[in-house]
Design brief:
2 copies of one chain form a homodimer.
Chain A (H helix, E strand, L loop, with lengths): L3 H8 L3 H9 L6 H14 L5 H8 L4 E6 L5 H16 L3 E6 L4 H14 L3 E4 L19 E5 L8 E5 L1 H14 L5 E5 L5 H16 L9 E3 L4 H13 L6 E4 L2 H14 L8 E5 L13 E4 L2 H18 L7 E4 L2 E3 L11
Parallel strand pairs in A: 1-2, 1-3, 3-4, 4-5, 5-11, 6-7, 6-8, 8-9, 9-10
Antiparallel strand pairs in A: 10-12
Helix pairs in contact in A: 1-2, 1-3, 5-11, 7-8, 9-10
The first copy, chain A, binds a DNA duplex through helix 2 and helix 4.
DNA sequence: GTATACCAGCTAAACGTTTCGCTGAGTATG
DNA sequence: CATACTCAGCGAAACGTTTAGCTGGTATAC
């Protein structure tokens, strides 16, 4: 690969002049400029971004660390983030912590070594597990979707309590009272809030869910399948389920199908965060949806601002509001 | 951020010694080693990968350039590639060309500037559009899924002709004769091969598809929807469709649903490359599937080998065989 | 004609690492 | 005791850029 020195030699100028031409950072006479340009052309020279970044102490890289790349929700996040990141002039490095705090730790240290300029992180560990977010040592970080009670960090989250409340109220409005849940892990605030929202919504109507109708999943299809299968085998199974995310809802659907139960006739299902495939497949899930694109845009806006302006601004904690999207996975209760 | 010099000063040794300790690249006496380690600890030092990479002329980055990040097939590719890439000690930078040759061009030049060590590319342009793959100037590249007749490049592809043949034969076996196709763009070999495979399979049974039953899509849901809607409105609509990819199959499903047609009762659908959601949703598409994980692993094996050993090995062109996966989107023909 | 101002272009240092080659002390060999 | 050898550790160059500061020539002002 040709270097700036080769170009300088070829054009019989100094490297400073070549640099000035490349970056338009100083006036260069037309004659010299032409010589430089033709030398660049002749040698097929392209400036080394690696060297530039090294010089400037940046990398033009933004890391996206998600909890589970196999989850369509995070696939969409990758899609949205790639678009925004490249619009801001960065490139997106993608990591998958696979819901494992150990992986996340390894990834974060790799992110630091790579010198990524910023990190968009869907955290999977509990709070204490994180290295102190000393801005001297860590690149700017924005937490996405999940957060902990660290008020000194930028976060972009969903009002999970409200999402669960919306979904549960819909079931209550349909007359359901025996409502169960495949919940999210309770060591995450996401899981706690969604469960609390559901229980609060029921309590507001004077209903209490049966403990055996509330089970925790791990956000994944497989475990939701087993847990739902177990729960729905029981004779006193719930007539409706609030499932804490879309992927688990698919697992529940599969369990239903295996048990010969129909949705929505036998069981109504509502979930949160679903990214349904395009229409045509049945049933379409009734769900609360994250405004994913807006959330992603906002997160990257915060991140880029932090990268460019440091700690001048107080931490931003943006909470988005979910909306209920009706599908056909719910039917009125038949048991009063 | 502390640098190696700070550590050296703190430990009262030379930077060379610190480097030796970090990299275990030379013997260092226990005493000095201890001093260095505690200095590293005290300063919270982590070596700058940027500087290292600059020094070594590499970046530890592998670029993945896909044709459409919104397509679940490529989402799965991201998932598989991330896992393999990180197992090889690299990090994955993701780009989305969005099926646009212009974007791809921009992306490739960015990839070069970033100094990525290798590129896994799903090409979207036609052949001539590509910069000469002069190994002096371009990082090692492996073409994935699509290719062109450049026998001097590493490629990993699917036997598209066979995929279409498998799918079409299944429809023929069910008695269908009025078979149509929502095909892939014919400027890509993928599109040409899939269409040819379908037509050849039909020809082998003495059937010829009607021209108006063959329409090209662009791999996306939206266009497949419109095209299918148009085609299926006609009174002489086909009784079965071979759809060239999974995302388009979903578009077709939506069109069916809008037109009040049922699958498989009114129309049978087979597709290629589908990544169906987990079971439970109906109908499950009958499809040929790519051995995606194996393909991805193989592609990265080729790429890493090329990165590490240069051009010593002749180009590898690995072709994988698709397999037919039965769902419930097909029914026997009712019209003989 | 001298002093001043301007400006195009150059020189060289700096960024954080790795690594080649050197030094000098200690040890073995004769 | 002198020479050779070993080897822990050091100094400094090199990687490809950017950029602060300098130089020397030309134009302007008096």
């Amino acid at each position: 690969m040709a270097t700036i020195k080769d170009v300088a030699r070829e054009a019989e100028v100094s490297t400073a002049t070549v640099s000035a031409v490349i970056n338009d950072s100083a006036y260069v006479s037309p004659a010299l400029r032409a010589r430089v340009l033709s030398a660049i052309d002749a040698l097929g020279y392209a400036p080394s971004q690696v060297a530039r970044n090294f010089k400037h102490g940046r990398s033009q890289l933004i890391a996206l660390v998600v909890a589970d790349l196999a989850n369509p929700f995070y696939s969409r996040l990758v899609w949205a983030a790639e678009a925004d990141v490249s619009a801001w002039g960065y490139s997106l490095v993608v990591f998958n912590s696979d819901e494992k705090p150990d992986n996340e730790k390894r990834i974060l240290s790799r992110v630091r070594m790579l010198g990524c300029d910023g990190v968009l992180l869907v955290p999977v560990g509990d709070e204490d597990h994180y290295p102190v977010r000393d801005t001297r040592r860590w690149p700017p970080t924005v937490l996405y979707g999940r957060s902990f009670n660290r008020d000194n960090m930028d976060t972009v989250t969903l009002d999970n309590h409200e999402a669960a409340r919306l979904a549960t109220n819909y079931l209550l409005d349909l007359g359901h009272r025996r409502i169960g849940s495949i919940a999210a892990p309770t060591h995450l605030n996401t899981g706690r809030d969604r469960l609390a929202g559901m229980i609060d919504a029921m309590a507001a109507r004077g209903v209490t869910p049966r403990p055996e109708h509330i089970r925790s999943g791990d956000f994944r299809e497989q475990m939701a399948y087993s847990v739902a299968r177990e729960m729905l085998k029981q004779p006193d199974r719930p007539s409706a389920l609030y499932v804490a995310n879309g992927l688990m809802a698919l697992g529940v659907m599969r369990a239903l199908s295996d048990l010969g139960l129909r949705c929505p006739e036998d069981i109504s299902i509502v979930s949160t965060d679903t990214v349904s495939g395009p229409g045509g497949l049945r049933p379409q899930l009734t769900r609360t949806e994250h405004p994913l694109e807006e959330m992603t845009y906002e997160a990257l806006r915060l991140l880029v601002d932090r990268i460019q302006h440091g700690n001048s601004r107080p931490p931003g904690n943006v909470v988005f509001t979910p909306s209920l999207v009706l599908g056909d996975s719910c039917a009125p209760a038949t048991d009063g």
